[in-house]
Write a structure and sequence with these properties.
D-Maltodextrin-Binding Protein, domain 2; 9 strands; alpha/beta
């Protein structure tokens, strides 16, 4: 039922986008954009935000929520946000690289080893420098919004780098993802999410990379039944406000909008809880789920070890700074874990 609802949602929102653009309000009333299918973690997230804003303001603030993809693809959403036609939105870090390429480094493969490590580095090390980078682009970072691990799905098993060689793998418009697939010898095809099923059916693609939730609800397993928990990249979005709009709010209203955003720590844990039933459903539906062995994971790391340097060469000094900060944060996390064990 969830799979069918997701596919209907994608079809309807595509028609809505082609038929008409949403009407945007003037003034300081918050126009909020997102791309969440009904009954998904993203849907819960945005409803929680909306309810909190209304409650904290005693009904004085009534955000206009365009969270069903009505505004169109992410490129359109981000463009409207920058032009102050949209005031607040969740944008993937890949999307933000259109104006700040340094964030490409966050998509480097096998950068992180656990969700706990990711959270530690994001919250304690990356929040401030990323906030500064976005502020320079007239964008206000309000919070991270985790999207979870990316894993491989395919028509045949993918467990070691040689398994993906010459396979046609679907990607978004994402420079770091493209560089990753080139590094491991895969072919790549840029296909929109709504066209993945058709592309699998026709043989245009052999597989792709996707979070567990979207792999299951998108129905990809019917045509690509092999799902590998590669955890090769951790996807993040950023909740961003247009600076002109945000600076025009009262201090009280700024505080309301900031505090209404669910914390990324809460959302990371929520996604973990939600993923277990999705994996159970995938197995029940006949999909084969693989967990990489330490030796297999090391093969991937070895094959892509030079990618951070290549991403930095492409993205510039800002990416180098973020990379250095990530390494510093990972070292601090390792020390914290070692101290916890010794105590």
């Amino acid at each position: 039922m969830k799979i069918r609802a997701t596919l209907v949602f994608l079809h309807i929102t595509a028609l809505m986008w082609l038929a008409a653009e949403p009407v945007f309000a003037d003034g300081h009333e918050a126009i909020v954009g997102g791309r969440a299918a009904p009954d998904t973690p993203g849907d819960v997230y945005w409803n929680k935000f909306n309810e909190s804003v209304v409650s904290q303001s005693d009904g004085r603030l009534q955000p206009k929520m365009f969270i069903r993809g009505e505004i169109g693809p992410e490129e359109t959403l981000f463009s409207r946000l920058r032009r102050n036609q949209l005031h607040l939105a969740g944008v993937s870090t890949s999307g933000v690289t259109l104006v700040e390429p340094a964030l490409d480094i966050l998509r480097a493969p096998f950068m992180f080893d656990s969700v706990e490590q990711v959270g530690f580095v994001l919250d304690n090390y990356l929040r401030e420098p990323v906030t500064e980078l976005l502020l320079a682009k007239d964008l206000v970072m309000l919070e991270w919004m985790s999207a979870g691990w990316l894993n491989f799905y395919a028509k045949t098993p993918i467990r070691v780098p040689d398994d993906i060689k010459n396979k046609r793998i679907r990607i978004n418009i994402d420079a770091a993802a493209l560089m990753f697939l080139r590094e491991v010898g895969a072919d790549y095809v840029q296909v929109s999410f709504s066209d993945v099923l058709t592309s699998l059916q026709t043989g245009l693609i052999d597989g792709g990379e996707q979070s567990t939730q979207l792999f299951v609800t998108g129905g990809f397993g019917e045509y690509a039944p092999h799902y590998t928990l590669s955890r090769h990249a951790y996807l993040n979005a950023i909740i961003i406000a247009n600076r002109e709009w945000f600076d025009g709010l009262t201090v009280e209203d700024q505080s309301i909008y900031r505090s209404a955003i669910p914390t990324d720590a809460w959302y990371r844990n929520y996604i973990i809880e939600e993923n277990e039933p999705y994996l159970t459903q995938a197995i029940a539906d006949g999909q084969i789920v693989y967990e990489l062995t330490p030796a297999q994971r090391q093969l991937w790391k070895d094959r892509t070890a030079d990618l951070p340097r290549k991403i930095i060469d492409r993205s510039g000094a800002g990416a180098q700074r973020l990379y250095d900060i990530i390494l510093e944060g990972k070292a601090a996390y390792a020390r914290q874990q070692a101290e916890a064990v010794s105590n």
